[in-house]
Amino acid sequence: MPTAIAVTGPDLVLPSPDRHTPSAAVLQSAVRPPRAYSLDQALTEMHTLIEHHGYVIALCPASAPAAVTQRLYAVRSVLESDRIAVVRSDLPPLGLAVLALQLRQLSVCDFSPGVLASAARLLSHYIYAGALLGSVTKLDRVPVTLQSHAKSWLPGAQFAVLATPRPELVKLSGDGSQARLTGPAFGTKMLYAPGQLAPGWVTGHLAPAWRSQEVEEARLPAESARWWATGKLVEFAAAIPDISVLYQLVSSVRRDDCHWCGLELIGDRCAFCAAPLPPPEDRPGRPVRALLPRGAT
Q1: Looking at the domain that runs over 128-239, which CATH code has it been given?
Q2: Could you give the CA distance from residue 154 to residue 259 in angstroms, rounded to a whole number?
Q3: Lowest mean pLDDT among 75-79, 131-135, 176-180, 220-224
Q4: Given strand 233-239, what is the order of strands in its sheet?
Q5: What's the pTM value of the predicted model, to 2 decimals?
Q6: Residue boundaries of the structural domains of the chain
Q7: Edge-to-edge strands of the sheet including 4-7?
């Protein structure tokens, strides 16, 4: 069985694009309050996933309540298992759902659990996630100028905001056709999830400007209004949809062995035991290849 990809809410599970991509496991220990779902039940839930899949990668938004992350780490500690990776992400909700889908797609490939878990950080840099907002007065996820705060009080004001990979914010004027957000330099599929705003600017202006190869509507995650601090929004995320390109992207990065748990990893830290990579002079020599494959440009 492939490594299990677990998420902290059902809204983070996008439909599988094909019959080969497994679904994600929704952790009830994160969805239900501690009083309604005991620690023993949470332990059983995680133990069952480990028994069936061998390893579990639990994606947890950095914005999740403290009780959610504390429960995940408590389960890992009590089970004394090095087969559970708790991967926290700063991506907005729809972007995190896209990341979960990409990991699900890659879980059926020949990547080891350590490489797959540490690939989450790499793939996050290639997800362009943002939102069209009707207000930025309470937004604290992206830098907002005092001028933008003031303009946010004007009736009908709308703002295009990019959260990742580099924060940007522009105010829309007129029909919004002149508003620009820095987009990806590679082929993507765009998902958009309407809240209390019409998606016309996202589908009619942003998607063509970013040369998105495909545009598809998704359900707005329940967490989105809290993350963006307003219900007047249309959330969007553009990412690489092709599993062959994702595979090339991950496989092109140098791999190392964790000096603590022995799992393979990419990057500077093991996602399972959190041990940092030793200094370069203490690592065994391996060739370093290009970070971005040709198929992603």
Answers
A1: 3.30.1180
A2: 56
A3: 176-180
A4: 168-171, 159-164, 128-133, 233-239, 189-194, 214-217
A5: 0.90
A6: 128-239
A7: 25-26, 4-7, 56-61, 84-89
